[in-house]
Amino acid sequence: MIRALPLVMIAMPAWAVEPVLPPDATETFTRVEALGSHRVATGPHDGTLPVEIAEGAVTRRVWRMAASDGTLAIMGPLRDALEADGWQVVFACEARGCGGFEFRFAINVTRAPEMFVDLADFRYLAARRGSEWVTALISRSGDAAYVQTTEVDPDAEVEEVTGSAPAAVAPVAALPQGEVATALREVGHAVLSDLEFETGSAALQGAEYESLAALAEWLADNPDATVALVGHTDAQGGAAGNLAISRRRAESARDLLIRRHGIASGRLETHGVGSFAPIAPNDTEAGREANRRVEAVVTSQD
């Protein structure tokens, strides 16, 4: 059974969508707007994101559960249940096929800690039934998976509800540097966890970085591969400043890979996503330190 949030407000509305989720799924967030709008992606991000703006009663819910079976194992039953209930899938994709970083930041996502999105491991679905829309977003963080559904019904009459349950989300464990190559090979991305940054700074704090050496060795062993370096920040400071700092963090790592390790510049792209993809809560120094990071994401590999 899915455990609902203990909201002490008003009676909850009847849901148009009740996702089929694993038995350990715990609902951590619910928001109902009597009149709102939602950006529904109807195709992949390719320079721009094709969207339909759905308006009406908007209901958003988020669940957390164990991630042992992966995101596809969660999305499959959810999609089957929607189609069995008369919903027509308009668009479905996985991380790279969705458009990667740009797609993630062009859609509506509940902020952490209720919802975490791994930029290299997420799935999205948009479905329509008459005038109603529903979208689903599934991702992972460490040993937990997260599911967000958003329903839009222009004909529904609902009472507004907002509530969340504290989510005890542990920081993702630091990846042993010897496992960088394994992570790139098996899951397509790795946190370069020995690249340390102070809040608000893009300057690297050490002289030698085992993770960059391991990444350079992997690139040498895979001469056709390309990698995106993605910079992140904690939640302190404004969004625009954090985006700029996160981009400079990725560029700092790229510069060292080129200068010290001889990696061709054309094999390394950089992105900055600010504080929008945390791997730990930002309410502790340990969590903020974990979120100030650079990740390597495999973008192509023949």
UniProtKB/TrEMBL annotation:
Where does the UniProt annotation place the signal sequence?
1-16
Q: List the protein's name.
A: Outer membrane porin F
Start and end of every OmpA-like domain? 184-302
Which UniProt key words apply to this protein? Cell outer membrane, Membrane, Signal
Q: List the subcellular locations.
A: Cell outer membrane
Q: Which Pfam families does the record cross-reference, listed alphabetically?
A: OmpA
Q: Provide the primary localization.
A: membrane
Q: Which GO terms describe its cellular component?
A: cell outer membrane
- Taxonomic lineage from the root: Bacteria, Pseudomonadati, Pseudomonadota, Alphaproteobacteria, Rhodobacterales
SUPFAM superfamilies in the record: OmpA-like (SSF103088)
Gene designation per UniProt: oprF_3
Q: Which InterPro entries match?
A: Bact_OuterMem_StrucFunc, OMP_bac, OmpA-like, OmpA-like_sf
Residues passing through the membrane, by range: none
List the Gene3D superfamilies hit by this protein, alphabetically.
OmpA-like domain
